[in-house]
Amino acid sequence: MRDWYDDLKTATTHLGFHIACRQDTGALLHSAGFVDVCEEIAKIPLCKDTGSKHDEEIAMCFRGEMSDPAGQAYQGMAMQPFTQVLGYTPERVFEVCIFGRRGSLRSDQFVRGVLAAGV
């Protein structure tokens, strides 16, 4: 899973959009014309041992969505970056999202693709 995230982060950064939390969101919104910008950091609980029933329910729902047996949550996030930057076919993205989440996505083909893309 860590490799999947690292690969997605690499590919999206190459495309010019970042999946990591940005510290300059407020400034970006102001420059786009928003005037009453208020930032609040919201953390998503990922484990059920939070001590709060509400957080446990949120964690359960989040994990349920991300562990969709059809892998659609992962396909949706990965399709454009994996096809445009890493050179995967849509079928390969589907395969990686279904079967590769538990394993490593690293391969010679991936490394060559990243080097060729100049990431």
UniProtKB/TrEMBL annotation:
<protein>
    <submittedName>
        <fullName>Uncharacterized protein</fullName>
    </submittedName>
</protein>
